[in-house]
Design goal:
Blueprint: E1 13-17, H1 21-27, H2 32-53, E2 57-64, H3 72-94, E3 99-103, H4 111-123, E4 133-140, H5 142-156, H6 162-167, E5 179-182, E6 201-204, H7 214-226, H8 235-244
Parallel strand pairs: 1-2, 1-5, 2-4, 3-4, 5-6
């Protein structure tokens, strides 16, 4: 560990809204595409750090459905990053036994990008069951995900329960996030994992994503460990469960 002492339970699953790449570059009078390249570098470092710390699952919000409204030149820059960097970056992470999943409607992406993502998922399918997962949200929107699940249930003539709906989401076999981190100074979820985030702890950083360091990640996790997650219970009940080991 770094300078942040973590006392308490680690989150099993963290999700990160990687916000601020473009603004980071603009502040430095550089094209937004440069910020995205630096964001990919930081993403790789944070993934290494997360799994080194003992986090089991990491979900990264890389491209929302709303982001597809951005200028074509910026989107092409993002697609080129996937073409040039994605496979090697994922192989470095996934060789540690991490299963990769893509969350979202990737049919909205160029055909060659879709194929790159499909192959990357297939390469790591053998790691299913290792208890470690990396999830990349691309062309993802939580409302669309919920509507998609409801439509699947309707087509089957099923009446949805909470468990039934969860089973139809992209994250069906992934534990819900315990901690959601957003960089870039904004304080909202922006249509990210809305159903799964029901009991997630939220952590907001003013730093742009390329500047969000390993120490910053440790501080976010240390803050999570300091919090009491009640799940509707009283402090007394939570304290009893901690002592007896009967809590969630």
């Amino acid at each position: 560990m770094g300078k942040n002492k973590i006392e308490g339970a680690l989150p099993r699953h963290i999700a990160i809204i990687m916000d601020g790449n473009g603004r980071w570059a603009k502040k430095r009078l550089m094209p937004r595409s440069v910020g995205h390249k630096h964001g990919v570098d930081r993403m790789e470092g944070l993934l290494d750090k997360s799994f080194e710390m003992g986090i089991s699952y990491v979900t990264l919000y890389a491209l929302s459905t709303e982001n597809l409204k951005r200028p074509e030149a910026e989107l092409e820059g993002l697609y080129d990053l996937i073409r040039k960097r994605f496979v090697d970056a994922m192989r470095k992470i996934c060789k540690k036994g991490v299963r990769l999943r893509i969350l979202g409607d990737v049919t909205m992406l160029p055909k060659d990008v879709q194929e790159i993502l499909r192959q990357a998922e297939e390469e790591t399918a053998c790691y299913d069951g290792n208890g470690k997962g990396l999830n990349i949200a691309l062309c993802y929107g939580a409302r669309a995900e919920i509507v998609r699940a409801a439509n699947i249930a309707a087509e089957k003539g099923e009446k949805l329960t909470e468990e039934g709906l969860s089973a139809l989401l992209y994250t069906s076999d992934i534990p819900d996030p315990d901690l959601i981190i957003r960089t870039g100074g904004e304080m909202r979820l922006s249509n990210f994992l809305l159903y799964q985030a029901a009991y997630a702890e939220l952590y907001f950083s003013a730093k742009m994503f390329p500047d969000f360091s390993d120490d910053d990640l440790e501080e976010a996790v240390a803050e999570f460990a300091r919090r009491t997650r009640r799940f509707g219970k009283t402090d007394e009940q939570c304290n009893t469960e901690k002592r007896t080991g009967t809590g969630q």
